[in-house]
Amino acid sequence: MKDSIKTGFSFGLTSGIITTLGLMVGLQSGTHSQLAVIGGILTIAVADAFSDALGIHVSEESENKHSSKEIWLATLATFFTKLFFASTFIIPVLIFDLPLAVLVSAIWGTVLLAIFSLKMAELEKTNRWRVVGEHLLVALIVIILAHYLGNWVALTFK
Question: Are 150 and 27 in contact (CB under 8 A)?
Answer without folding.
Answer: yes
